[in-house]
């Protein structure tokens, strides 16, 4: 038996170690050594070590915090984190099931390997999904996987794959048929039946599922070297409350506009965000007075938030984008005048030269009333552009 003095000393030492561990539990300071670190300064300097304190690069020689973690890069290259100024990470995180990206697959065998790897990370019986962001032409076979091929890769997890068609495996087929959704013997879900399948999976989602999907979405983009996403919103699901005649759409790109950010907000509150998020609020008002947009800009503050999550702009739509039959959005200028007067950044989705010209002309009209040069307005996608011809 230890003497009382030694026992007291041991207890104090244990308490001190526990306190030290607690102090370092939330430490963010990091020291990288033995690497090729591209600073991208004015001289394009490459250094071998760097200290990051409280999320920012510290000056050389700054005193290290006792909780600083050191990583030996062993000659690896480090580049600054990339910022994607237009994506839909919120939609990605809210997709039902455990997501797996297959854009790197060059064959059906590659798809099978990716699915097998993903299955090792999720419980047996849990849904795995691939919803979009791939093209059937990327596979050497130029076709969808068959039910038998998916069955071989995923015998214990139901699976839904949608993009250049929709296909499921045996467990998925059994579930969807129980919901009255037609699935062919080959596992194919035809045409609009995909939306019924998607909504059947949405009905299974819990808030914890949404949080886990959001964590997975952040981890996926982090793995590509992206550290910040500028999220451009989602279409509004039919049935969303208080829409005031705004456009709605039942698609894989649709969410409830009032609850779609809840998973990110919860993870931010819990200190679990691993990826910076900048939110652009998408609205598609049809009324002349753009009521939903008005409520957004009058009840939120541009750039409100912190380093990890901020409300940053409006887009990629500010009004219902209708160009069919020669029509143009009649409330578009009203919407953009409001965005400009309230001092918000803005980005407009376009897919044709006609849309680009209409957008640019409206920007000019708004600028004549409220200068937008410092508001960082932009046009996204721009699939076609023309050079201005000189009249000289």
What descriptors fit this protein?
392 residues, alpha/beta, Urease, subunit C, domain 1, 7-stranded mixed β-sheet, 4-stranded mixed β-sheet
The averaged pLDDT comes out at: 91
The shape, in one word, is globular
Give the termini separation: 101 Å
Number of helices: 11
Q: What summary fits the major beta sheet?
A: 7 strands, mixed
Number of domains: 3
Classification by helices and strands: alpha/beta
- Rg of Cα set: 26 Å
Percent helix range:
25-40%
In the predicted model, the low-confidence regions spanning at least 5 consecutive residues are 5-10
Strand content: 15-25%
Total beta strands = 20
Question: Could you explain how this protein is built, in words?
Answer:
By secondary structure, this protein is α/β, with parallel strands linked by helices. The protein has three domains: 27-80, Roll (Urease, subunit C, domain 1); 97-202, Roll (Diaminopimelate Epimerase, Chain A, domain 1), CATH 3.10.310; 207-212 and 225-380, no CATH class. 32% of the residues lie in helices and 19% in strands. The chain contains eleven helices and 20 strands. Strands 8, 13, 16, 17, 18, 19 and 20 form a seven-stranded mixed beta sheet that branches. Strands 5-4-1-6 form a four-stranded mixed beta sheet, with no helix packed on it. The chain has a four-stranded mixed beta sheet with strand order 9-10-11-12. α3 (108-119) runs parallel beside α4 (147-153), α7 (207-223) crosses α8 and α10 crosses α11. The longest helix is centred in the first third of the chain and has 21 residues, at 4-24. The radius of gyration is 26 Å and the shape is globular. Residues 5-10 have low confidence and may be disordered.
